[in-house]
Specification:
With 125 residues, the protein is mostly helical. 54% of the residues lie in helices and 8% in strands.
C-alpha cells in the first residue's frame, strides 16, 4: 500500500471504532510517547494502550483509554471487544482521550507547561 499522508491518516483514525498501540515495556517506550498517539486520540475513538509506566501516569483504564498488559492475549481481546462496542462509555473514553491529546500531548501546551516549570525551577515569578 502507498504511504498515507496526514489528512488520509486522520480520516482513517476518525473512521476507526478503536485504535490499538501496544508496545513492549522497555526504556525507549517509557521515555516518550509515540508520535502517532496524539493523532490516534484526536480521532475520538477509544485507544488501547500498553499498561506500563509513563503511559499509566497520563492514561487511566476506562477513563481516557483502555490499558492492557501487551502479553495478556485474553486481556487484549477483552479490551478490543469493549472498545468496539459503540456504546456511550466508549464515546466518553474517546472524548476524554481527545482532551488528553489537545491538552497534554499538544506540543504548544506541553512547551508552555515546561516553560512555566523551568521558570519556577529558576526562581522566576
Amino acid at each position: 500500500m502507498p504511504r498515507l499522508n496526514h489528512a488520509e491518516l486522520a480520516c482513517e483514525y476518525s473512521a476507526a471504532a478503536a485504535t490499538i498501540l501496544l508496545r513492549s515495556d522497555d526504556q525507549s517506550s517509557r521515555a516518550c510517547f509515540p508520535t502517532r498517539l496524539g493523532e490516534m486520540l484526536l480521532g475520538g475513538a477509544p485507544v488501547i494502550l500498553s499498561d506500563m509506566p509513563d503511559y499509566n501516569l497520563e492514561f487511566v483504564h476506562g477513563l481516557n483509554a483502555y490499558l492492557v498488559n501487551p502479553s495478556d492475549l485474553q486481556g487484549i481481546a477483552r479490551c478490543m471487544v469493549a472498545a468496539t462496542s459503540g456504546d456511550e462509555e466508549n464515546d466518553r473514553i474517546g472524548a476524554a482521550g481527545r482532551l488528553v491529546a489537545r491538552t497534554r500531548l499538544n506540543p504548544k501546551c506541553h512547551l508552555a507547561a515546561v516553560a512555566q516549570w523551568l521558570d519556577r525551577a529558576c526562581g522566576k515569578p
